[in-house]
């Protein structure tokens, strides 16, 4: 029987359920026989989204300004304010954090209301004002898998955790070796456990591979199929799938018959939580999970990674998780209504003839037109996301500001602020149109009152 290290855990097994506690996962430990400690630190040749992987902490950029990570990697009381990608630095939009929920129960297990999945939204690149896709053309469009990968399906994981600290002490597999009492052995033939040490801090992004394991490698439960419900430090329950870190070569360096180890077989280590897990559906990569936790052997140090260790990752193909992901990804409200400048609050007035806050951003973006709404048009005042910044948007902003700014003020602000390059209606027509816009707004309010 396999036992699990549960030292960091609040409660081991949820009574009467199959939920299991485990450690938070951090960096990827990738096994190979090269003797080089840190490998796979540049994009794989067949790349599912290396340039979508956050640096600094693990997470994956999904497109439309959304990032997916694990809730437990970011402090709920001090959320990060910046997310870095290989191509640039992005301010996190305040108040954009969304924790995905769990279904009420799964496989007969009552779940916590929240899962460990967290999404948040990023602004355009701090220096260039570009979206990640524009900033870095190697950014990939990400598809969330809709079918659960089967046992044996190959996975590619990308994490920002710690990496192998040193080449191992033997010159055959470059591994370290321990006996059952975790005493290090120079002679692998005297050892029962084989693996690596890893660094204490992040080694930068690393990718590696593994396969979906049968849930029996952690705890089998027929009611939930191949899924495993795990309890993370802090108590949150999560629907996951598992991998097992398998050894490819014996002590002599010969292939182990029947080993299911992949090339670059990987196990998560501290810091990898939130890192992406992809699989291939036909010729297309799909995102099927983010790493959540690791299971170690009894008595094993967190500084060690040994063959047989397991990584669990959230199962994004679960319909309850996937629906929330897709709904958020399709949302074109980049913040609360009226927050044109994406600072998390709606503000704006006219001070000595000069607009402030969101009103200032709106005035400078007035009359912007582009094909479709996105964050670029939003930041120019396109609050209804039709690609244009016009009176329909002003009505929204004005309403959010409590009706304190008049159309006449807007007209005058736009007339004095418009750069010559902008095609702006001449002041009289603005005034007329502004009147129309305001009438529309009052009409709408009146209608709402009547309901
Ligand atoms: Ca199961
Ligand atoms: Ca494996
Ligand atoms: Ca604002
Ligand atoms: Ca608009």
Low-confidence stretches: 1-27, 420-451
Strand content: 15-25%
Query: How far do the termini sit from each other?
Result: 65 Å
**What is the correct CATH architecture of the largest domain?**
Beta Barrel
Beta strands, count: 24
If you average the pLDDT, what whole number results? 85
CATH class of the largest domain: Mainly Beta
Task: Specify the biggest β-sheet.
Answer: 9 strands, mixed
Helix count, DSSP H or I runs of 4 or more residues? 7
Shape: elongated
Number of domains: 2
> Can you tell me the CATH topology of the largest domain?
Thrombin, subunit H
Secondary-structure content class: alpha+beta
Ligand inventory reads: calcium ion
Task: Explain this structure.
α5 (391-400) crosses α7 (427-450). The longest helix has 24 residues, at 427-450. The protein has helices at residues 132-135, 319-330, 357-365, 375-378, 391-400, 407-417, 427-450, and strands spanning 20-21, 23-24, 29-30, 60-63, 66-70, 82-85, 88-92, 98-101, 105-106, 109-110, 114-125, 154-159, 176-178, 193-197, 206-211, 228-231, 237-244, 266-267, 276-281, 284-295, 304-306, 310-314, 350-351, 354-355. It has 2 domains: 20-330, Thrombin, subunit H (Beta Barrel), CATH 2.40.10; 350-450, no CATH class. The model is unreliable at 1-27 and 420-451 (pLDDT under 50). The relative contact order is 0.16. 16% of the residues lie in helices and 24% in strands. The chain is an alpha+beta fold. The chain contains 7 helices and 24 strands. The strands form 6 sheets. Strands 1, 2, 12, 15, 16, 17, 19, 20 and 22 form a 9-stranded mixed β-sheet that branches. Strands 4, 5, 6, 7, 8 and 11 form a 6-stranded antiparallel β-sheet that branches. The protein binds calcium ion (4 copies). One calcium ion (CA) is lined by residues 382, 384, 386, 388-390, 392-393.
């Amino acid at each position: 029987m396999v036992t699990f290290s549960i030292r960091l855990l609040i409660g081991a097994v949820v009574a009467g359920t199959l939920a299991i506690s485990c450690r938070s996962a951090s960096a990827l430990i990738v096994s190979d026989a090269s003797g080089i400690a840190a490998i796979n630190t540049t994009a794989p040749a067949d790349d599912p989204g290396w340039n979508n992987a956050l640096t600094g902490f693990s997470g994956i950029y999904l497109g439309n300004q959304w990032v997916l990570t694990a809730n437990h990697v970011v402090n709920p009381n001090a959320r990060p304010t910046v997310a870095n990608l290989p191509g640039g630095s992005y301010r996190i939009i305040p108040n954009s954090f969304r924790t995905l929920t769990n279904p009420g129960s799964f496989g007969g297990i009552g779940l916590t209301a929240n899962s460990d999945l967290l999404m948040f939204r990023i602004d355009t690149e701090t220096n260039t004002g570009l979206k990640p896709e524009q900033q870095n053309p190697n950014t990939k469009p990400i598809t969330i898998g809709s079918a659960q990968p089967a046992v044996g399906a190959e996975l590619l994981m990308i994490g920002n955790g710690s990496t192998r600290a040193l080449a191992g002490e033997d010159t055959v597999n470059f591994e370290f070796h321990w006996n059952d009492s975790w005493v290090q052995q120079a002679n692998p033939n005297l050892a029962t456990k084989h693996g690596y040490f890893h660094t204490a801090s992040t080694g930068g992004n690393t990718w590696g591979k593994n396969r979906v394991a049968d849930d029996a490698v952690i705890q089998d439960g027929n009611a939930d199929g191949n899924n495993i419900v795990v309890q993370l430090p802090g108590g949150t329950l999560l629907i996951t799938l598992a991998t097992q870190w398998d050894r490819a070569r014996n002590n002599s360096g010969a292939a182990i018959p029947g080993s299911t180890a992949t090339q670059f077989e990987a196990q998560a280590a501290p810091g990898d939580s939130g890192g992406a897990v992809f699989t291939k559906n036909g010729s297309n990569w799909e995102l099927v999970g983010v790493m959540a936790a690791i299971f170690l052997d009894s008595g094993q140090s967190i500084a060690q990674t040994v063959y047989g260790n397991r990584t669990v990752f959230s199962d994004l193909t679960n319909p309850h998780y996937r629906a929330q992901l897709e709904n958020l990804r399709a949302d074109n409200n980049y913040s609360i209504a009226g927050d044109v400048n994406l600072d998390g609050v709606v503000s704006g007035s006219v001070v000595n003839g000069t607009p402030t806050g969101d009103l200032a951003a709106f005035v400078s973006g007035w009359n912007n037109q582009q094909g479709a709404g996105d964050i670029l048009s939003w930041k120019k005042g396109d609050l209804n996301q039709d690609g244009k910044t016009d009176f329909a948007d002003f009505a929204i902003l004005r309403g959010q500001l409590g009706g304190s700014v008049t159309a006449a003020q807007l007209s005058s602000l736009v007339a004095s602020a418009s750069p010559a390059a902008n095609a702006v209606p001449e002041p009289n027509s603005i005034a007329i149109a502004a009147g129309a816009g305001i009438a529309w707004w009052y009409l709408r309010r009146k209608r709402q009152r009547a309901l």
